Amino acid sequence: MLLPLALLSLALLPCPGRAAAAGVDATPATADTHRPALLVFTRTAGWRHDSIPQAVDTLRTLADEAGFDVIHSEDPAMFDDDMLPRFRAVVFANTTGDFLDEAQRAAFERYIAGGGAFMGVHSGAGTGKAWPWYGGLVGGGFKNHPRGLQTTDVRFESGRGPDGLQRWRVTDELYNYRRNPRGRVDVIATVDEAGYEGGTMGADHPIAWCHTVGSARVWYTGLGHAQALYAEPVFRAHLSRGLRYATGLADDC
């Protein structure tokens, strides 16, 4: 369940013995309140992925393993100059549409300019289409995708696959982007368009990458539509690597 904003400021303070209230995510109440927190944001203003619960549960598990608490919210009021600095990183997990107003966008831009971190999962690239700054933050804007789930190979670059894995067979919704981000970002993985129908980017089709915006670390993966993917060890390791990079626990994405 989501944590209401009115209770969130209390949830992020060292306050032993807090009781879980109705409608409140009880996980932070039992966590070490001195640990840094991540904001996992899943608001949608359009298509809503049925894999959002799996995404949140997976990110919560991976964050816990890395030493972070997770606050899950869909309240745009989180994006202000008081709340955002409390988070080590902001994660847009299958967000869609435009849901932040001008003041909230400005607060998020200041958070990133101040060294905050960002992680995007799947349709995070399709969020904020009328917000050019956000498109630059993600590094590659969503264009379209072939219909349905299709299977092809993901090719990891520079040894960035889990345990050195170079190729991984995956079934997911495979995004096309408005332009190839290579050269502006550090590409982690590509998809093989020869293995499925509807790819529009050719032989070099990045699907995951990282980069920095000023001193802020940014990590994005286009995978994450399918519910079943979140049970895949390779995908979980992929997300874990991104989380550790974005939060500064690892230097290589």
Protein described:
This protein is an alpha/beta fold and 253 residues long. 23% of the residues lie in helices and 23% in strands. It contains 6 helices and 11 strands. The strands form 2 sheets. The protein has a 9-stranded mixed β-sheet, with helices on one face. A two-stranded antiparallel ribbon has the order 5-8. Helix 4 links the parallel strand 3 and strand 4. Helix 3 packs across helix 6. It is globular, with a radius of gyration of 17 Å. 44% of the residues are buried. About 11% of the residues have low confidence.
Our estimate of the beta-strand percent is 15-25%
The percent of residues in helical segments reads: 10-25%
Output the structural class: alpha/beta
List the helices and strands in order. Answer: HHEHEEHEHEEEEEEEH
Mean pLDDT, all residues = 88
Query: Shape from CA axes?
Result: globular
Number of beta-strand segments: 11
Distance between the termini: 30 Å
Largest sheet: 9 strands, mixed
Work out the radius of gyration. 17 Å
How are the strands of the largest sheet arranged?
2-1-3-4-11-10-9-6-7
Assembly level: single chain
The number of helical runs is: 6
The stretches of 5 or more residues where confidence is low (pLDDT under 50) are 4-11, 13-32
